[in-house]
Amino acid sequence: MRIQRPAFYGWVVVAGCFIAMLCMGEVMWSFGVFFKALQGEFGWSRSITSSCYTFMVVGYAISAIVAGRLSDRYSARPVLLASALLAGPAIALCSRIETVLQLQLLLFVAGLGAGVLLSVPSSTVQRWFHNRSRSAMALALVMSGVGVGALVFAPVINHIIATTGWRQAFVFAGLFYFIAVTVAAVLVRPLPRSSSEPSSAGETQGARSSVARQLVRTPRFIALVAVLMASVFSFQVLSVHLVPLATDAGISPEIAAAALGLAGAFSVVGRLVCGLVSGRIGWRWALALAEIGIGVAVLFLLVVDEAWMLYCFVGVYGLAQGVRAVSVSGVIGCLFGMRAIGELIGIAMACAQLTAALGPYAAGYLHDVLGSYTLILWVIGIALLVCAVVVLKFLVAPVEKRVLSEEPTSGV
Question: CA-to-CA distance for 254 and 276, rounded, in angstroms?
């Protein structure tokens, strides 16, 4: 009699992590849709309006390290539940604001909750699929949740704003966040002890933190963080300012919001493509090509003044952002292993987000002073092309075995 092996629960974990990442797309890609509605209601300048998003990004960065460390020590479930309880109500309460300070504080709290939504799902799925043949595809599927979230929520929130107002849109966004992240927490469960990677069996949190402290001082990690800083800076600027930039060029708000969502759709394709081809070209080349694609797309945005040109931009930009998002997590797991991956992803993202937090405000300030986004687009585009060179030059080989006792998961 043939004994059936139990189904691998890792794919349920992928589904739960995907749902959590949907909410990251909702939070991080949709603020730009609220932008001009808030300006019109309160008469704020673009720099003041952008500063609200900056507060959210700062909160996100602060919690990213803590969330990654807690998921290494305990499991993803309690961390995700805390995220739902913190960020969901904070987003919904944005519907009641009357001053810029209220919005800044509430979005800061929302950021504290949302900071969970990258380090925890991406590290959790890599642990479940460590040394499995479909690990790259599992990570790509989880990371595609961000793009699906952008595709769905940018036009949905724009429709709610147009029909019932921005206050109701905040209520909807907060309620969905709470429900979806709670469902994700229920689906995601700890890796069975028998399946844990050998290098971490019986290892204390202090030992893992010691490994993390050694790894973050290596030249490769510093180079990776520098690349991530530039990448996330550009992402945050365009997440907030793409819709107002497009409408300044004479493109309708509906088309601009649809384009923002379409960028998310193309990022889904990019994430899945990255999962398919990374095994052949390596995470390092995938990341370098993504940086080139984003840089070229941003420079092309300088001449966009018609809808078809905007769609061309979002196609290239979305694909490249999708590849970049997956390949960064893949490079971290590949170069530094699984022992402290949650904390390492959290540290890298925190550094990047703290730098990127200034991006939307800087772009808004330069627009207020110069009357256009030209300077900030030039700076971002050139910086991203330089990042591709940094990736190919510095992210070459695994960390020394005296620091990391386990082999990397795949080639870079």
Answer: 34
Q: Specify burial of residue 356 (Cβ count, 10 A radius: 0-12, 13-18, 19+).
A: buried
Most confident of 3-7, 164-168, 236-240, 266-270: 164-168
Q: In this structure, what token pair is assigned to residue 175? A: 């309620």
Coil, strand, or helix at residue 52?
A: helix
Distances (CA, A) of 327 to 122, 136, 199, 273: 11, 9, 24, 11
Query: What residue ranges define each of the domains in the chain, with the CATH number in brackets?
Result: 17-189+204-394 (1.20.1250.20)
Rounded CA separation 83/81 (Å):
5
Rounded mean pLDDT, 251-272: 83
Closest CA to 278 of 214, 206, 326: 326
Place of tokens 């390092």: 284
Distance CA 85, CA 108 (A): 14
CA 269 to each of CA 236, 281, 307: distance values in angstroms, whole numbers, following the listed order: 20, 17, 21
User: Among residues of the chain, what percentage have pLDDT more than 90?
Assistant: 31
Count of other CB atoms within 10 angstroms of residue 12: 14
In terms of Cα–Cα distance, which of 122, 128, 144 is closest to 189? 128
Coil, strand or helix at 400: coil
Predicted confidence (pLDDT) per residue in 115-149, tens digit: 888 778 877 887 788 766 677 788 888 888 887 88
Taking alpha carbons only, the member of 125, 139, 183, 179 closest to residue 9 is 125
Q: Please state, in angstroms and rounded to a whole number, the distance separating the CA atoms of residues 69 and 120.
A: 9
Alpha carbon 98 to chain centroid, angstroms? 29
Query: Is the pLDDT confidence value at 86 over 50?
Result: yes
H or E element that contains 111: helix 100-114
Q: What is the mean pLDDT of the chain?
A: 82
